[in-house]
Amino acid sequence: MLSGKLTHVLYIWHDGLIAVSSSGRQITASRRFSLAQPLAGDVARPEPGFDDWVQAHRRDLFQIVVDSVDELHVVEDIPKVSLRDRDALIGKRMLQRFRDARFTAYRLLAANRRANQPPDGAPEARVAKGTRQVFMTALVNDSTLNPWYEVLRRHRVRIRRLSSPALLSQDLVQLFARDQSGLLVSLNPAGLRQTLVIDGVIRFSRLASIRDSGAQAVRDEMLRTLQYLSMSQRIPRAVAQAGTLKGWIVDAGIEGTDSLGAELVVDPAFKVPLMRVPTQALAPTPVADWPGLGVWVTALRSTNGFADYTNAQVRQFDQLQIWKNRIWAGAGAVAATGLAIMIGVSLLLQAHRVESQTYAKLHESYYVQISELERQLQLLPVSAGEMRAVVESAAQMRARQISAANVLGLIGQAMPQDPAMQLRSVEWRRSDDQANESQLAGNAPDVTAPDTEGQVPMAAPMGVPPARASPCASWVRSPARWARPRPMTGWPDSPSG
Question: Where are the alpha helices (DSSP H) in 46-136?
Answer without folding.
Answer: 48-56, 83-98
